[in-house]
Specification:
There is one protein chain. By secondary structure, the chain is an alpha/beta fold. It has one domain: 3-Layer(aba) Sandwich (Rossmann fold), CATH 3.40.50. It is built from 5 helices and 8 strands. An 8-stranded mixed sheet has the order 2-1-3-4-5-6-7-8, sandwiched between helices. It starts with a strand and ends with a strand.
Length: 146
C-alpha cells in the first residue's frame, strides 16, 4: 500500500483527490499547515508528497522548494498541483536525468505513477517540461507533449 502525504491549505479543496486516492487503496495522510509540513514528512515518511494549494502563492511555492532542497527527503518524489491549469507537476529532481527531471501529468494517479517510475524509462502519456523545449516552442508554452 502506498503512503501519500497531501499538503494543502484547505481540506475541502484537496478532498476530491484524497478520496480518489483512498478509493484506489492508498493510505492518505493530510497536513493543513505549511509551517509544520516538513515535520510531518519526517514523521510519516510517505512514498509521494502532494502539495495541493487552494490558490498558488508564496507559502506553497516556498514549501515546494524547501522539500526539494532538503537532503533528508531526497528520495521522496514531490508532486505540485498547479491549480490554474489543473495539472500535476512531478519533480524527480534528485532521481532523474537532467532532461527528464520535471514531468506534468493530467491526473493524480498518473502523477504518482510517473513519480515512482524509473527515470530512464519513457512513460506515456506525459508532458515533458524543460526550459530548452519551451524555448524551442517559442517560449510561450509551459509544457510540450512527449
Amino acid at each position: 500500500m502506498l503512503n501519500i502525504l497531501m499538503i494543502s491549505d484547505n481540506a475541502r479543496h484537496a478532498e476530491a483527490d484524497i478520496q480518489m486516492l483512498k478509493d484506489r487503496g492508498m493510505h492518505v495522510y493530510t497536513c493543513l499547515d505549511y509551517g509544520i509540513a516538513a515535520e510531518v514528512v519526517n514523521e510519516v515518511r510517505p512514498d509521494v508528497i502532494f502539495i495541493n494549494p487552494e490558490q498558488p502563492g508564496k507559502e506553497a511555492t516556498e514549501l515546494y522548494h524547501t522539500l526539494l532542497d532538503n537532503v533528508t527527503f531526497a528520495t521522496i518524489p514531490v508532486v505540485y498541483v498547479l491549480v490554474e491549469d489543473d495539472v500535476y507537476l512531478v519533480d524527480r529532481k534528485r532521481t532523474a536525468s537532467r532532461e527528464r527531471r520535471n514531468l506534468i501529468a493530467d491526473n493524480a494517479v498518473d502523477a504518482i505513477r510517473l513519480s515512482l517510475s524509473n527515470p530512464t524509462t519513457k512513460v506515456r502519456p506525459v508532458y515533458i517540461h524543460n526550459y530548452h523545449k519551451v524555448q524551442q516552442l517559442g517560449g510561450n508554452n509551459f509544457a510540450a507533449r512527449a
